[in-house]
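Thread: quick sanity check before group meeting

JM: Hey all, I'm pulling together slides for Thursday and realized we never actually wrote out the predicted structure for the chain we discussed last week. Dropping the sequence here so it's in one place. If anyone has concerns about the input, flag it before I start.
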Amino acid sequence: MTPTSAVHRVAPKGRGTHRSIASAVRAARDGDEIRIAPGTYVEQLLVDRTVHLLPEDGPELAVRLLAASPGRPVLEVAAAGVLVEGIALTGQDPGLPAVLVGAGDLQLDACEISGGRVEAGGDSSLALTDCRVSGAGLAGVHVNTTGSARLTRVVVEDIQGTGVVIASRAAAEATELTVRRVTGSGVRVRGDARAVLRDCRISGPGRSGLLVEDAAALTALDCRVEETAAEGVRVLGSSARADGRAGGVLLTRCEVLRTGTDGVAVSGTGDVLLRNCRLRDGSGPGASADGESRVELVDCQVDRAHGSGLVARGSARLTAEGTSVTGSRANGLLAGDRSEVRMAAGDVTECSFSAVHACDDSRVTLTSCRIASTAEHGIRVTDRAGLTVEGGRITDCGLTGVQLDSAAEARMRGLSVVRGRAGITTESTGTVVLEECDVTDAERAGISCGTGTAPVLRDCRISGTGTAGLVIGERATPSVDGCTVRDAAGSGLVVGPGAEPRVRSVTVARTGKNSLFVGEKARGTFEDCVFAGAGSDGAAFPALHVSAGGAPVLRGCLVRDTEEDVALEKGARPVFDDCLARDVRNPSLPTGVEQSLASAGSPESDPQTTARETEAPSEDTLEDLLAELDGLAGLDRVKHDVSSLVKLMRMVRRREEMGLAPPPLSRHLVFTGNPGTGKTTVARLYGRILAAVGLLERGHLVEADRSALVGEYVGHTGPKTSRVFQQARGGVLFIDEAYSLTQYAGSNDFGQEAIATLLKLMEDHRDDVVVIVAGYLKEMETFVRSNPGLASRFNRTLLFEDYGSAELVSIVEHQAAQHQYELAPEAREVLTARFDAMPRDRGFGNGRTARQLFQAMTERQAYRVAELPDVSESDVMTLRTQDIPQTP
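JM (edit): ok, ran it. Output follows.
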């Protein structure tokens, strides 16, 4: 009030007071104050001058103003500077305004408005502080003005419609606004309006939490949107205003929780930026971009979306930087149509589908991202989609680290793929380039080039794969330059039938089978390559195997550190130009220029090219073998089972020596368990034990897999399986991943023929061969049940459990002792903690992981010791804490 202002009093009775508020307003001048006694006033109040309405002393909201007519607001303002404080205002029609500001400006402080909305139109302005709006229809607060609006500590609830609507060209600010129990959207911003929300809470709306349309702009800071029936934030329309001012939506430090559909959904040409936001537990995607929209996420978290974490469709552009996507029940990132997605320094983990899926004509760029623990592929690209990867790491995928299909295009540099069923598989006919990529510990192949593909591989590294290192499919024509393949359990480089690769400066070392396997009628050139350490676990596999009709050209290649350098099938026609063999026990590689080996080995040697044989030492005693079994790390249950079998076998042998009939007994076994749990080692010991007992003639072990038993054409499988079986006579035939014989469907698969041949041979030579089939538990159960003949012969299963941390440490210590190293005492503790932290999932390598970790420790120790000025024998022999890698 000013010194010249007057005070007008309103009361139901009393001398010198107005009987109605309207009477007091008519008597007032600009700047006057109207004090109202407690009570209920039924009026149609029009305020057309600058006045201050407030209650006399009394209880809070003791003054109640009720609309006199259902078709009119209880309060209408047509003047500037109107202030209403501490009054309850109630309309009679929820679908109409209870408070209407047609001109001027109104400030409501500590008021309660019900039975209709608060509305501002024209060029008016509106301010609400510490107010409550409820019981309205269509909207609780509707700002449809070219003026300003300010809402501070306002509660809008129980609205049959939208909580707050900001429209036209209004400039609105809301601080600590609460919107709850509304049937429409929480806050709707449309037209050319601009809105700023700070510390606001929107919960339980019947539609979207925040809805932004047309060319409107919204900035939200430290806000929370939760329990929405539809999207948490929905953005439609244009990102630019008609007058050229920037539109769009900015959310900073906001939370969007438990939404009915998308956490944030953007379409049209909407432009949205999210900074430090968290989107969690939505029933749809975490954030989606459609149409021609633009969405950018910076340092955000997208958690537990029931759909995909991030989705881009249409021609949308989606960018994510420093953002994590975790626990999506579909894809972590899904790109389709013609969308473009760029993600940098992001994490995508624990998704139910592929972590990143690109399809249609989309384009996805990933820079220094981490993908982990997905149920399917780490990255899958199909149709005509394009992928660019710079750096990053993919770990523990249920299927393939990177899967490229159809006509997808991909350029990947510096990507690391660790564990998973397979590393990188390209079945795409599009342009695929892999540079400086690492694939480690894949359960199956490291990198696979599918039928008819022509990818380019440069300076890639593949190590520790469960089957082959690099597989080149039928009729594929890849270019492979400067790559390395190490420690593959199977063959290092496999060239499929009819393939014609161009391979240069490739090193293949320490493979379980062949360094290079060339399929039927395959060609290709191999220049300046090194093939070292074939059959590194002691099996007799030649470094180079060329199948019938194969005609590869090898120039300037080196074969070393192997039992045998070359094995040829009949009709093979390789060309060797200036190639060398070093440290080969049985060399046959020709020297000189343009020399060809056109003839194949004898048929008797064929089994050795398809199955690995380990001869049993002749001086074994049963006691020594049982002691060797007992000395293995872990495997308590297996040791007990084998010991029980030995007792049974000895009893069988004694009955036979006494001329008694042996009891019905199947010596064939099923070994189940994860990789690296010692199945092959125990199988080798089991054969030697049976030989020591006198139930097998030699007790040697022949290892075979699907490729050793199944042929490529009609009439090929039976003889191939028979040759491997004959090689195992007198010993043990060990078939790893035996379920692969039944997992392939189609008229061109001969796995069932291999099983039928095997069963007949087992019946015909029941006393000559023990067959052990091995693999994962569930798959082996399905395999044995798939054929009555298998179920009757394989009725005993030995379960190989995963090693505990202490057992893995003992394996490392055993490796150290074998190679003249020793562990420092403190290193044992750190090593135990390192194993404790490793996830024991299906891809865990058990003993293989321990051996690989030992190898990594020796390499790190070598780098460390090389920098010491003075080196002692203890320095060279001792592995210390700093030599233990701290990351998987």
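AS: nice. The first helix runs from residue 21 to 27. The radius of gyration is 39 Å.
JM: adding both to the slides.
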